[in-house]
Design goal:
The complex is a heterotrimer.
Chain A: H1 8-36, H2 54-61, H3 63-94, H4 102-114, H5 119-129, H6 135-140, H7 146-156, H8 161-169, H9 174-185, H10 187-203, H11 206-211, H12 220-230, H13 242-265
Helix pairs in contact in A: 1-13, 2-13, 3-7, 3-10, 3-12, 7-10, 10-13, 12-13
Chain B: H1 2-12, H2 18-24, H3 26-47, E1 55-56, E2 64-65, H4 69-76, H5 78-110, H6 115-126, H7 133-143, H8 151-158, H9 177-201, H10 206-214, H11 219-243, H12 251-256, H13 262-265, H14 268-277, H15 285-314
Antiparallel strand pairs in B: 1-2
Chain C: H1 2-26, E1 67-71, H2 83-94, E2 97-101, H3 108-117, E3 124-127, H4 129-138, H5 145-149, H6 160-164, E4 167-168, E5 171-172, E6 174-175, E7 183-188, H7 189-195, H8 203-215, E8 228-230, H9 247-250, E9 257-259, E10 265-267, H10 272-286, H11 299-307, E11 311-317, H12 320-331, E12 338-340, E13 350-352, E14 357-360, H13 367-378, H14 383-390, E15 397-398, E16 402-404, E17 407-409, E18 415-416, H15 454-465, E19 467-469, H16 477-499, H17 504-513, H18 516-528
Parallel strand pairs in C: 1-2, 1-3, 8-11, 13-19
Antiparallel strand pairs in C: 3-14, 4-5, 6-14, 7-11, 7-12, 9-10, 15-18, 16-17
Helix pairs in contact in C: 2-14, 10-16, 12-15, 16-17, 16-18
The chains are: A mainly alpha, B mainly alpha, C alpha/beta.
């Protein structure tokens, strides 16, 4: 990899991004500072006035937050798996141009993106399946995401036809082709769309709000919401650290993805997919 | 490139008998079956509920057929049309604005030479997406506060653009609400939008860039002739798919709207929300279904129109 | 490499399925608890049949039900806060199995609608006033007028007006075990002292105080004009009673439907006195007395600013918040003494809202028994009421001596226990606020009254003596059609006038032009037609 000459453009670009990063961070900084600050305050501060871990201690030692965190983790991992499976399978089938019914299936899926039966009818169907108030509904219901499926299909279409032909000449079944050719070449797509699913599942609040009544199955976002909004109840007991806990909880919701992204990023490096292709 | 190959292929393939083709593709049908099952169970089974748009249904007794009454009620209220046009204006502008910004940012991020700095920048710009709208609205209410404590106003006063005491109440002003809203959206969504574009850029062969360098292409020429065309497909798909959802705009507007800016800030979903929860009466699911149907039709029309346009201009759409 | 991937994937899949099944299995659905097999009638104080004669004629037919299903929001202790202990004690007290459906507090109304739509109705539910009126009209609720009139608890109700306020068309469909509470105006004593003024008793004095707080130096930091008099979360509220945060400006005006002197429904927004209210609000806002950001403030923003000593007059919930505000001020190093003001002359009485109401659904089998065993227990003036007010023994309160959070209690001294969710704080109550209960404790003295802080008691008492209940507004189809838009238009007008972007005349013209007047008249007619 020969070293490229560093130009003025590079310097300007770096400065530009440094500024952008600072600007992006300002609101986050406020939340972070407040999460460590034991003195409730209104206003922007550069640094906490009264530093303390109480907020985070509250979040992490609070036994009522363990379970939601666990629920969130399980649902996110399981859900991402379901989501990726459905998107990749669906996308793989939809790129088969000469399969009879392909256009029909494609239209059928797109239709679901546009028309929705509505809250109550969906609720009643879930109810009749017996999965309301269980983890199944929060894992399965958001699993079929046609938006992601179409994006995945877009990525698959970038795989050269010659590879498929070579595989079928070698006697590979569609399943084998899927596992041995399509998936390994789609690392960037899997990383990107997997990340999008993970985020969607982790942040999911509405599905829980509608379908889950059993508080043992609440996820972290629900708990977070009730911490953020609950202290306004006319019957609430306001504690002096209410603000800190609230901001700490917000930060805790952000941190997993701060850590996760660098792992997904290594798939976003240019040229990573092209190793296998000898055209 | 591959689309050209595909075209030739499908021309060459003579029409085999249908049953033979179905048999040839049997494994594909099997692979598709879970997707089909999900679609039927979770989307098509409830679709039957769309009929409630023609009923009065409070969830307590049996639905009562009322024909088009819900639609008449909807279309006769000025508030509905205001919300409708607002939704289209705000949502469309937001979609194009944030997509455009995401593209520019992806292109620029792609050009960063230092890998470590690139990764850090990428991570930082995508973090705002994870702050919930409730918290975002509260923090920005502070940042845009009409006092010296609001960063924006403080900055403007220090630069001499504003006098002290003349601070602008951004979120409370009918003139400034929408710009403020778009500004906050850019902050929140640009970085997230770069993910899908970065993934696409990862698929571009570095040999193309090397060949262009050898030919003496400048950085900007490379971007224009290699990077952007490679992204076009993804861009179009992202835009068209997002069009299907533009009528669903809710939370970001809900947390930021207030009484003074209703004319500019009321969107369809918030309109329905007020109808349902602030009217002091029981929600009528028939009415909300009817509105949902109108939303879906509009979204669907937009998708179809853009798909056709895309086919005409670029030769292919998303179906 | 690739085969490893697919078998690794399979392993992960299996693990996940197992994990999620485990979670599902471990998340016990309520109702899986064992039946309290003993169906002995408890000899304890709950049964109204014990001492005082139950004179309801149908008592002979009342069979004790095996199970009662209730649906309640976050105002009852949640699972994380010892709901199981509560349930166990209730079941021991009554000998009936209790199933509690308790959705997340924010999701309560949505879930309520869904549960009803699914057809499987609970026996008892807690409803807010709008839904109470609406469901009563739809026949969802059981008419408990007779049961109540013949009940023992009726004799112990402190203020019959509270119960009468729940009657729709002369019939009673539900009961609220406590008052709804409302907002009272608190003034920082140190601020008053610094500007040398007394607690205002009428609007002119109030103006004086506001002026001193805004243009003087009430916080004693030597700078004039860096403070303002008051703040609020919004210029007009979202729910009844709408004007609870700014009573001194609205005074006797009301932005929505009320019953006028002639006993007829009317819309307060179109009355003459509302113009006065708008003018007062406008003038005060333009003079800088009211926080400029009142329009966009959330309740926590307002509280934070109060604790930051930005303003000195705060109209907020009476009762426990009296103590909360004080504690938080002191935690910030400020003088926390607050005076819970009596209403100024022009206001007359603070508004109290309707509390959430417990109802029995029309699908419930044996509703008379449910009334007796659930409602009467909740308000029995003895152990049942204690359970609903303070919670379960050993979980929420205790009489054991010992040290807790720095305070030593003697043996036999009633005290609350540490909050399981918020370590470092104590529980204050369960479902019924002891200061606002509908009935008094009669079997024994209120055990917990001593553990309530002074400020809370004072503010609750002052409020109680100076408030009036807002009328329950029935629902009508016309209302559900137009009220959403009407409310929106009204609020927009208030905001525009106060902020000064439009004049009152312009906006009142607009109100008529855009149909507001017409909608208002139609709704009023429909209400009066009932």
């Amino acid at each position: 990899m020969k070293k490229r000459k560093i130009t003025t453009f590079d310097y300007v670009l770096n400065i530009f991004f440094a500024l952008i990063c600072i600007a992006m961070l300002i609101p986050l900084w406020k939340v972070m500072v407040d999460s460590f600050d034991l003195r409730t305050a209104y206003g922007m501060k550069l640094w906490p006035e009264k530093f303390g871990f109480d907020g985070y201690a509250s979040v992490f030692t609070n036994p009522t937050l363990y379970r939601p965190l666990l629920v969130s983790t399980v649902a996110t991992v399981a859900g991402t798996f379901v989501g990726l499976t459905l998107s990749t399978l669906g996308a793989y089938v939809l790129i088969q141009k000469d399969m009879p019914g392909r256009n029909f299936f494609s239209a059928m899926l797109l239709f679901t993106m546009i028309f929705n039966g509505g809250l109550i009818p969906t609720y009643l169907v879930m109810n009749s399946l017996g999965i309301t108030n269980t983890l199944w509904v929060v894992i399965l219901l958001p699993g079929l995401n046609v938006f992601n499926l179409v994006l995945m299909r877009n990525f698959f279409e970038g795989i050269p036809r010659s590879l498929f032909e070579a595989a079928s000449i070698d006697g590979c079944s569609p399943m084998a082709t899927f596992f041995r050719i399509v998936l390994p070449l789609s690392k960037a797509a899997l990383a990107a769309i997997g990340l999008m699913f993970a985020v969607a599942y982790w942040n999911d609040y509405t599905t829980y709000k509608i379908y889950i009544i059993n508080s043992d199955l609440f996820n972290f976002q629900m708990k977070l919401r009730s911490i953020i909004l609950g202290s306004d109840l006319p019957t609430a007991t306001g504690s002096a650290t209410e603000n800190t806990v609230r901001n700490a909880a917000t930060m805790v919701a952000i941190i997993p993805f701060m850590i996760l992204y660098p792992f997904a990023q290594k798939y976003f490096v240019t040229g990573i997919n092209l190793g296998a292709v000898k055209e | 490139m591959s689309s050209q190959v595909e075209k030739i292929d499908s021309d060459k393939i003579g029409k085999k008998p249908l049953s033979k083709r179905i048999y040839e593709h049997r494994w594909y049908y099997l692979l598709f079956s879970p997707v089909l099952l999900f679609a039927l169970t979770f989307y098509y089974a409830p679709i039957y509920g769309l009929r409630y748009a023609f009923y009065d249904y409070k969830g307590i007794k049996e639905p009562v057929f009322v024909g088009l009454a819900n639609f008449e009620k909807m279309f006769s209220m000025q508030g509905f049309w205001n919300a409708f046009t607002n939704t289209l204006e705000i949502s469309l502008f937001k979609l194009f604005l944030t997509t455009f910004m995401s593209i520019i940012m992806s292109l620029l991020l792609n050009e960063i030479f230092n890998l470590k700095f690139k990764k850090i920048s990428q991570t930082i710009v995508y973090l705002p997406h994870f702050m919930s709208w409730v918290v975002t609205a509260s923090v920005f209410a502070l940042i845009m506060s009409p006092s010296q404590q609001g960063l924006v106003n403080a900055l403007l006063t220090n630069l001499g653009i504003l006098e002290q005491g003349q601070e602008i109440y951004f979120l409370g002003s009918s003139k400034w609400w929408r710009p403020a809203y778009f500004f906050i959206n850019i902050w929140k969504e640009t970085g997230w939008g770069t993910i899908i574009f970065m993934a696409t850029l990862a698929g571009i062969s570095p040999e193309l860039y090397e060949a262009a360098s050898i030919d003496g292409a400048s950085r900007f020429q490379k971007i224009k002739f290699i990077t952007v065309p490679a992204l076009m497909n993804t861009i179009v798909i992202v835009l068209i798919l997002n069009l299907a959802k533009i009528m669903n705009l809710f939370e970001s507007v809900f947390v930021m709207q207030n009484d003074a800016v209703m004319r500019q800030a009321d969107v369809l979903q918030t309109y329905i929300y007020t109808q349902t929860f602030n009217s002091g009466a029981l929600p009528n699911y028939g009415y909300t279904t009817a509105v949902g149907m109108v939303k879906s039709i509009v979204g669907g029309l937009l998708v179809v129109i853009c798909n056709i346009a895309s086919k005409k201009i670029r030769g292919r759409g998303i179906v | 490499m690739k085969t490893n991937k697919s078998s690794a994937m399979k392993k992960v899949l299996v693990l996940l399925i197992v994990l999620s099944l485990v979670l599902v299995a471990c998340g016990p659905k309520d109702g899986g608890t064992s039946n309290t097999g003993t169906s002995t009638d408890t000899g304890s104080a709950t049964d109204n049949g014990s001492a005082s004669a139950t004179d309801d004629s149908s008592s002979a037919e009342i069979e004790k039900p095996e199970k009662i299903t209730i649906m309640v929001d976050g105002t009852l202790v949640t699972k994380a806060n010892g709901r199981d202990a509560f349930k166990a004690e209730w079941e021991a007290l009554t000998g009936i199995e209790l199933e509690i459906i308790q959705p997340d507090h924010d999701a309560y109304t949505d879930n309520l609608g869904q549960v009803l739509a699914s057809g499987d109705w609970p026996d008892v539910m807690l409803l807010n006033s709008a839904y109470y009126a609406g469901y009563a009209e739809e026949g969802v609720l059981w008419d408990m007028t007779a049961a109540y009139d013949n009940s023992e608890l009726k004799t112990r109700v402190k203020d019959q007006a509270l119960v009468d306020g729940l009657k729709i068309g002369g019939s009673l469909y539900g009961l609220s075990p406590s008052r709804g509470n409302g907002c009272i105006t608190y003034i920082k004593k140190s601020w008053l002292d610094n500007v040398g003024l007394d607690v205002p008793t009428n609007y002119d004095e109030y103006l004086e105080v506001m002026d001193a707080f805004t243009n003087g130096d009430p916080d004693g930091n030597g700078i004039n004009g860096d403070t303002y008099a008051l703040s609020s979360a919004g210029l007009i509220g979202e729910e009844i009673p709408f004007i609870n945060y700014l009573p001194e400006f609205y005074q006797d005006a009301f932005p929505s439907f009320y019953i006028n002197e002639n006993g007829q429904w009317a819309d307060g927004f179109v009355q003459d006195n509302f113009i006065g209210a708008l003018e007062r609000l406008h003038d005060a806002y333009q003079a800088g007395y009211i926080d400029k950001e009142a329009l966009t403030n959330g309740t926590s923003d307002v509280r934070n600013k109060f604790y930051e000593d930005k303003f000195g007059i705060f109209t907020y919930w009476a009762g426990t918040w009296g103590t909360n505000l004080k504690t938080n001020l002191e935690a910030n190093g400020l003088d926390g003494e607050l005076i819970a003001m009596e209403p100024i002359e022009e206001v007359g009485a603070y508004l109290e809202r309707q509390a959430p109401t417990w109802v029995i659904t029309s699908q419930a089998e044996n509703p008379e028994a449910i009334f007796e065993y659930f409602f009467e227990t909740m308000l029995d003036g003895g152990l049942g009421q204690k359970l609903f007010t303070y919670g379960a023994e050993g979980t929420h309160w205790s009489t054991e001596g010992g040290e807790l959070l720095g305070v030593t209690y003697e043996d036999g001294q009633f005290h609350m226990l540490e909050n399981m969710e918020k370590a470092g704080t104590l529980y204050t109550k369960n479902h019924i606020d002891p200061m606002m209960a509908l009935t008094n404790f009669t079997e024994f003295d209120d055990p917990g009254i001593l553990s309530v802080a002074e400020e809370a008691l004072v503010s609750a008492k002052t409020f109680g003596e100076n408030s009036r209940l807002v009328e329950l507004v029935p629902s009508s189809d016309v209302m559900s059609q137009y009220n959403g838009d009407l409310v929106k238009l009204k609020r927009e007008i208030v905001a525009n006038v106060v902020l000064g972007t439009r004049t009152i005349e312009e906006e009142m013209e607009r109100f008529e032009k855009e149909g507001g007047l017409e909608w208002s008249q139609m709704i009023v007619e429909s209400l009066n037609a009932k």
